[in-house]
């Protein structure tokens, strides 16, 4: 079904903020061909009248870990490769079901997995992979226990289920970035501060030297891409931004001075609030390590204030779920969490028009307009009135179109994969 006509739908374009009612939307060859209040007479594969439904751009989640089938990163890294790969399949299907047509993987997804999805072998959202996230020894991507017998490496490289690899030194950083790009990464991910889901690094730590961070940015920019950095504190964020990092992941402890610096540098933040809520609530039962659980509140308690501060200062924020393991089902929680602080319009923009800017596709993705990519989520009702329509498992999103093809119809994922 490569040509589709949606009749009598409402259209909401987050890029312009304009909502129009009773429109006809013609989709052909992967693009939105026309949007018109007048009847469209075209011969199409599928013609569907959906009054009361709203056509939105397919959502873009800028921070996922598709290989994190368990909440415990160390357990994921130990998993046999084939098993780890198979366990990503329901995760990908779930994302598509919830209306996400593009995801930016923040560490773990490999090129083979992306190719399988992007060539139609597997059903899932388009994946923009970072390859393995790069971490210093003892950093947020080093999951070895404290021991006097560490061995040469963390054993992460070549592990399908690992989100990261350990890299130290400027030259090694250059090589690792080049390797991840060779393996097909769309952008590079570095761990630039301590984190929650790692055993040995307090959140307040800065990670990587400035020279290492600059080396990563230089190598990424050399091929026309950019670096995304995991960072929580003002100090860690400022170091990363001054070295040329383009997107800050999390940013929970940000202050006003740092937020202004981000705006000056035309950089972005991808906050990830709801994952910490779910981890603190369900982590203990799911085997989230106790040393990590103890760190959650530091970041969680200030997350919503950070969101309000960034909105006030004018920081552009993209949508990030960062769900792990069994918590992937809560990917859409972030819409509701953000809507409470910055309103439903900005919450939706973070996963559409702003996200498209971050991935370098403004005007092409994240918008419903003639000539734009036909990645669409069709919602039963108006999510600007009721943001909870986007939550759950896509129960209120009966239809999803990805790259002009219907991948979900009447509430069911289609099985037309090769
Ligand atoms: Zn992170
Ligand atoms: Zn993450």
Write the layout of secondary structure elements.
Layout: E1 3-13, E2 18-28, E3 31-36, E4 46-49, E5 53-57, E6 59-64, H1 73-78, H2 81-97, E7 100-105, H3 111-118, E8 126-128, E9 133-135, E10 164-166, H4 170-182, E11 188-191, H5 210-222, E12 227-231, H6 234-242, E13 247-250, H7 256-264, E14 268-270, H8 274-286, H9 290-300, H10 303-313, E15 316-317, H11 333-350, H12 353-358, E16 376-380, E17 399-402, E18 405-409, E19 412-413
Parallel strand pairs: 1-4, 1-5, 6-7, 7-8, 9-10, 11-12, 12-13, 13-14, 14-15
Antiparallel strand pairs: 1-2, 2-3, 5-16, 16-17, 17-18, 18-19
This protein binds zinc ion (ZN) (2 copies).
Write up what this structure looks like.
- By secondary structure, this protein is of the alpha/beta class.
- It has helices at 73-78, 81-97, 111-118, 170-182, 210-222, 234-242, 256-264, 274-286, 290-300, 303-313, 333-350, 353-358; strands at 3-13, 18-28, 31-36, 46-49, 53-57, 59-64, 100-105, 126-128, 133-135, 164-166, 188-191, 227-231, 247-250, 268-270, 316-317, 376-380, 399-402, 405-409, 412-413.
- Helix 4 (170-182) packs parallel to helix 5 and helix 10 (303-313) packs parallel to helix 11.
- It folds into two domains: 3-58 and 364-413, Urease, subunit C, domain 1; 59-331, TIM Barrel (Alpha-Beta Barrel), CATH 3.20.20.
- The model has no long low-confidence stretch (mean pLDDT 94).
- It has twelve helices and 19 strands.
- One zinc ion binds at residues 63, 65, 106, 322.
């Amino acid at each position: 079904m490569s040509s589709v006509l949606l009749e009598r739908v409402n259209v909401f374009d987050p890029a312009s903020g304009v909502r129009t009612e009773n429109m006809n939307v013609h989709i052909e060859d992967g693009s939105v061909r026309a949007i018109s209040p007048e009847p469209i007479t075209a011969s199409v594969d599928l013609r569907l009248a959906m009054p009361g439904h709203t056509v939105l751009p397919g959502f873009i989640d800028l921070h996922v870990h598709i290989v994190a089938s368990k909440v415990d990163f160390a357990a994921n890294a130990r998993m046999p490769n084939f098993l780890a790969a198979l366990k990503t399949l329901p995760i990908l299907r779930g994302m598509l079901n919830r209306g996400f047509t593009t995801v930016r993987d923040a560490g773990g997804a490999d090129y083979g997995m992306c190719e399988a999805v992007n060539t139609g072998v597997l059903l899932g959202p388009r994946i923009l992979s970072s390859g393995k996230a790069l971490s210093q020894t003892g950093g947020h991507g080093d999951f070895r226990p404290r021991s006097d017998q560490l061995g040469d490496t963390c054993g992460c490289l070549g592990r399908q289920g690992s989100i990261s690899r350990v890299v130290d030194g400027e030259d090694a950083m250059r090589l690792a970035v080049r390797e991840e790009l060779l393996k097909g990464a769309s952008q590079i991910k570095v761990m630039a501060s301590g984190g929650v889901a790692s055993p040995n690094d307090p959140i307040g730590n800065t990670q990587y030297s400035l020279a290492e961070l600059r080396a990563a940015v230089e190598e990424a920019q050399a091929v026309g891409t950019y670096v995304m950095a995991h960072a929580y504190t003002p100090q860690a964020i400022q170091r990363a931004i001054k070295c040329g990092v383009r997107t800050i992941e999390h940013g929970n402890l940000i202050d006003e001075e740092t937020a202004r610096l981000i705006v000056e540098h035309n950089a972005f933040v991808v906050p990830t609030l709801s994952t910490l809520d779910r981890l603190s609530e369900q982590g203990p039962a799911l085997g989230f390590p106790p040393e990590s659980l103890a760190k959650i509140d530091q970041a969680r308690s200030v997350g919503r204030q950070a969101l309000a501060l960034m909105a006030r200062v004018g920081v552009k924020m993209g949508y990030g779920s960062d769900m792990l393991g069994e918590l992937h089902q809560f990917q859409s929680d972030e819409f509701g969490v953000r809507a409470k602080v910055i309103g439903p319009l900005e919450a939706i923009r973070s996963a559409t028009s702003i996200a498209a800017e971050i991935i370098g596709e403004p005007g092409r993705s994240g918008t419903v307009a003639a000539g734009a990519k036909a990645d669409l989520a069709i919602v039963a009702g108006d999510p600007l009135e009721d943001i909870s329509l986007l939550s759950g498992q896509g129960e209120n999103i009966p239809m999803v179109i990805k790259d002009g093809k219907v991948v979900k119809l009447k509430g069911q994922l289609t099985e037309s994969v090769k």
